[in-house]
Amino acid sequence: MKTFAAIDVGSFELSMKIFEISSQTGMREIDHIRHHIDLGTDTYAVGKISYARVDELCRYLNEFMKIMKSYKVSQYRAYGTSAIRETENTTIILDQVEQRTGIHIEVLSNSEQRFLDYKSIAFKGEVFNRFIEKGTAIVDIGGGSIQLSLFDKDTLMVTQNLRLGVLRLRDYLNHLDVGRPQYETLIGELVNSQLGVFKKLYLKDKQITNIIIVDDYMSGLMQKKFVSEGVSGQVDVAAFAAYMAQFEEKTPQELTKLFDMPEENVLLLYISYLLLARIIAVMGAELLWAPGVTLCDGIAYEYAQKHKIVLPEHDFEKDILACTQNIGKRYMCSKKRGETLEKIAMTIFDSMKRIHGLGTRERLLLQIAALLHDCGKYISMVNLGECSYSIILATEIVGLSHQEREIVANVVKYNHMEFEYYDDIGLRTSFDRESYLMMAKLTAILRVANGLDRSHKQKFKNVKMRLVENELVITVETNEDITLEKGMFRNRADFFEEVFSVKPVIKQKRSL
């Protein structure tokens, strides 16, 4: 049994959940502490979090530390989201917090944050699996932005971030100095253009029947007020709209009492609903479900997964690869060629385990690089490496951190270009020595895989590999002429040998 604390330093709220985690009983929440702190307004309005806010943050984090000690918490994770991520003085703030409280805060990229939210929903197990059998969207509403994720046949296919968060919209409306009666019209004008682009690019002919809601305001209300088929927080769109129509009939004071929340939260609830209503109109959804999860649940679930205390029921890696394949489709990557490269690269990776020292996460990054190896041709056939790098770095890949995406972008880039060494590349990236070496190893593997299919004709029926002393013997089964492959392979083999001190050698086996 472990006692674990998950801390979310959010845009509008500081929250901590204490969990008991064990392989026998799974995860059990034993306490939830929350404090309103409006970090987002500082960040979104002026670009910096003020000293007063930092002082308040440290004061309450010290209280959190006392609570953790009282529960004898053995491990904790503290994550900052968009308010910390987007402020100009992030490094200074994180150092101040750690010096004054002893709590180390890691900053999540948007894709990491949303993936943790998604994991917390998937932890609902059977209810989640049943809900996504039909066309489903997850609408994850944060303070600075929203994330729209689409499922097709139980698999996460598309996820996109839009800067339409509740606090951001509230600040726009405050700046316009308008009353509540105008909110619906103005929010419609603010969000319709972005939702229209999303619909054109990603929805097309997809039928979205269900919406899963993750937010700080509607979810709690829906959990308390609605139950359908024994599932709390589930309600059809028409019934929820009828309930929320009370905003048009009651005063802010009456709504505060009705919804049992502070008046400032009632305003944010209303903005959240108006935003959701526009999304429902675009998607044509019929059923809503608010599972009542928070980022803290996702943090705890990820911790339990990594330590093999809780085994996942859902294949999250499959979702990451499905999203990658959809990115490849968008930029007209060759599907057949990508799958061939992926297969060869994975075979090389698995054959070289005792040499390269890389793990399952690095294997996934190599798969992603193989699938996106030629995405840059969408822009230029000549500057393929540079264009591929730019596309990957600018395209959010769900579940990957910014640095992981940067590693993938560089692996694809140097698959097509002359490799640069650490003294040069270190000036333009955030890579430390370990990240650079990982990138170099993955690049060497992808280069050899690419060399084995240089003609793009998938000539080999079977490719087998065997590590013999300081040689990687690659046996290819084919009756075709592989002169081009052998000729183009030498240069790629030289770099592979430089990185691993192992020489790849091609041996042709004729098919009967």
Structure explained in plain terms:
The model has no long low-confidence stretch (mean pLDDT 90). Helix content is 52%, strand content 19%. The strands form four sheets. A six-stranded mixed sheet has the order 8-7-6-9-13-12, sandwiched between helices. The protein has a five-stranded mixed sheet with strand order 3-2-1-4-5, with helices on both faces. The termini are far apart. It contains 22 helices and 16 strands. The chain is α/β, with parallel strands linked by helices and 512 residues long.
Features:
512 residues, alpha/beta, six-stranded mixed beta sheet, five-stranded mixed beta sheet, 22 helices, globular
Q: Secondary structure elements and their pairing?
A:
Blueprint: E1 2-9, E2 13-22, E3 26-36, H1 39-46, H2 51-70, E4 75-80, H3 82-85, H4 90-101, E5 105-107, H5 110-122, H6 126-131, E6 136-141, E7 146-152, E8 155-162, H7 166-176, H8 183-203, E9 210-214, H9 218-225, E10 227-228, E11 231-232, E12 234-236, H10 237-244, H11 252-259, H12 263-283, E13 287-289, H13 295-306, H14 316-330, H15 335-351, H16 353-356, H17 360-371, H18 384-394, H19 402-416, H20 422-425, H21 433-451, E14 462-468, E15 471-477, H22 483-500, E16 503-509
Parallel strand pairs: 1-4, 4-5, 6-9, 9-13, 15-16
Antiparallel strand pairs: 1-2, 2-3, 6-7, 7-8, 10-11, 12-13, 14-15
Helix pairs in contact: 2-4, 5-13, 7-12, 8-12, 11-12, 14-17, 15-17, 15-21, 17-19, 17-21, 18-19, 19-21, 21-22
